[in-house]
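Hi Q.,

Before the meeting this afternoon, I wanted you to have the threonylcarbamoyladenylate prediction in hand. No need to reply - just skim if you have a minute. The sequence and ligand are here:
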Amino acid sequence: MWHATSADDMAQAVDALKRGDLVAFPTETVYGLGGNGLSADSCRAIYAAKGRPSDNPLILHISDMAMLDDIASDVPEAAHILADAFWPGPLTLILPRNASVPDAATGGLNTVAVRFPDHPVAQALIRGAGVPIAAPSANSSGKPSPTAAWHVAEDLGDRIAGIVDGGPTDVGIESTIIDCTRTPAVLLRPGGIAREAIEALIGPVLLAGPVAADDIPQAPGMKYRHYAPSVPVYRLPKDGAATFLRPLCEGADGPRLGLLLADEDISALGTVPARILLWNMGSRTHPEMAAHRLFDGLRRLDDAIVDEMFISDFPETGIGLGVMNRIRKLSRPLEERET
Ligand code: TXA
Ligand code: MG
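Predicted structure with the ligand bound:
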C-alpha cells in the first residue's frame, strides 16, 4: 500500500482509480474508501475490502454539479435548495437514480446517495478520475470511522492500493443524509450539517429511526452495529457523571479505564491515577469539538487496551445531534453494566 502526502502524488491515486483499484482519501468529514462509482467491479471490491454487507449502499461523490445529472434522474426542489446552500459540504442527498448507476453501488435501490465533498484532495481526485467516486467511510465494517490516515492503515492497510494523507479531518463525523425523494424530506442520518440549518431552508423534516413512525424507511446501514471499539463503552448520565466515576477512579490499582469526557465532567472529576486514560471531548457548549475528537479518541483508547470505556453525554443541538447519534450506536446505557 502506498501512502501519499503531497499534491504530486495525486497522479498515482488518479491512475489507481482509473484502473479500478481502491484508494482511501480525505474528505472534510471522515476518510473515504474510493472506487469508480460507475464500475460494478470497483463497487463490489469496496464491499469486500470493508467486509460490508452488500445491502448497505454507497455514497457517490461528485466534484461539480454537471456530474449530478449523470447519476440522478431528477433533482426535487428541496434538493436544489439544499445543494445550493450546503454543497460542497457535509451533506448527502438521496435522489432518484439514473440507469447508469450500477446496482452494486445502490444495493439495488431505485435511489442513489450523492455528496459533493468540501475538501481539495477529494475534489481533485474526483475531477482527475472523471467519474463519480463511490466511497463509504474507510474503516472495517463496524469499527469507528477514520478521521486520520493512520486509522485507515490500521483497518485496511493490507487490502487497498493506497492512501492519500490529508492530515486529520475537520468535521470528524460523517455527512448528514437527507432523503429528498419524500415530502417532507426525511433525515436519515444526522451529521455535519445541522438539522436546524436544513429546516430553516426547507421547513420541518421527518426523523428516521426509533423516534419515527414505522413506515418511514431508514438508511439501510442503520440496522448494523456501528463505530464500536473492542471493549464495552457505557454512556454516562447527563448530570452526576463525576459522582459515578469517582469511586472507580480511586487508587493506583484497579482496572484500566478509558474515559471520553466533556470538559465539564473532567473538571468535576479532578485528578485521576495513571491507570485511567482520559480523552478530552471539549466543552458541551462546543459540540463541534466532540464531533472532531470522537472517533480518534475511541481508537486511541482501544489501541491502548483498556478494560472498559465511559463516555459523556452531549446536548443534541447543532452537530450535537449527530454526535449523540454515534454515541448511542457505539455505547450501552450504564444500567446494562454488571457490577
Ligand atoms: O461523510 C460521509 O458521508 C462519508 C464520507 C466518506 O463521504 N461517507 C460515509 O459513507 O459515511 P458510509 O458508507 O459509511 O455511509 C453511507 C450511508 C449508509 O448508512 C447507507 O445505508 C446510506 O448512506 N445510504 C446510501 N445510499 C442510500 C440510499 N439510496 N438510500 C438510503 N440510504 C442510503
Ligand atoms: Mg460508515
